[in-house]
Amino acid sequence: MNDTVALNVKNLNLDLGGKRVLANISLSVRQGEFLGVVGPNGGGKTSFLRTLVGILKPTKGNISWYAPARQKQPIIGYVPQSAYINESNPFSALQIVIQGAAQSGAVFGQKRRQTIERAKALMKFLSIDRHLKTSYVNLSGGEQRRCLLARALMRSPSAVLLDEPTTGVDQNGHSRFCNILNNLSKEGVTIILVSHDIPVVSRFSKRIAYINKELSWEECLIN
């Protein structure tokens, strides 16, 4: 982690359905930082992430992402809490991962071959390469989460935001997943992780943000 700012949020407010969901949130996150985000159900954690990636538009305030030197513009990867997959026409795990490249346009010819090779390499990195042809819906919970992470990494993002990525995963799987994220953080990828598992998050995060509409810092949990 270095001192270069990856994300700056200033006075973020979000209203949904006439209700204030997020109020006056300001924070800065450095490149390569592993930031944990905790809080009660309904406290706004998911809305916070969805606003950071542009799915939701803030009612007030500013969100600024900064690209590292290797990129012309910031590329943000997002792993949602759940992904809708049509079980009547199931995709293979490899096809799900390749979808991560489609955000930059359709891929053909040599570029498609390179895309497939990158997808396979990411699946190997995340230890799910034996499931290249396995239907996504037949993967275990932990394997599905790693598959979605691989999809988020397809465009070599400068930051990855994850919403409860280990829900339904056992403790060993949770720790293994966080170890992978920690290694990405050490390589300079900014990680923002929403999780209900405070003990596990506190092992990896130097700072933990507590969000219950407003933001506070869990000083007692800082490493």
What's the quick description here?
With about 220 residues, the chain is of the alpha/beta class. The protein is about 30% helix and about 25% strand.
Give a description of the structure.
The two termini are 15 Å apart. This protein has helices spanning 45-52, 93-98, 109-125, 141-152, 171-186, 198-204, and strands at residues 5-16, 19-30, 34-38, 60-65, 76-79, 159-163, 190-194, 207-212, 214-217. The protein is an alpha/beta fold. The protein has two domains: 1-75 and 159-223, P-loop containing nucleotide triphosphate hydrolases (Rossmann fold), CATH 3.40.50.300; 84-155, no CATH class. A six-stranded mixed beta sheet has the order 5-6-7-3-8-9, with helices on both faces. The protein is globular, with a radius of gyration of 17 Å.
Alpha-beta classification: alpha/beta
Neighbour order of strands in the largest sheet = 5-6-7-3-8-9
CATH fold category name of the largest domain: Rossmann fold
Give the helix level as a range of percent: 25-40%
CATH class of the largest domain: Alpha Beta
Number of domains: 2
CATH architecture of the largest domain: 3-Layer(aba) Sandwich
CATH superfamily of the largest domain: P-loop containing nucleotide triphosphate hydrolases
Q: Which residue ranges are poorly predicted, with pLDDT under 50 across at least 5 consecutive positions? A: 219-223
Number of strands: 9
Overall residue-averaged pLDDT value: 87
Sum up the overall morphology in one term: globular
Mind summarizing the main beta sheet? 6 strands, mixed
What Rg, in angstroms, do the CA atoms define? Answer: 17 Å
Strand content: 25-35%
The helix tally amounts to 6
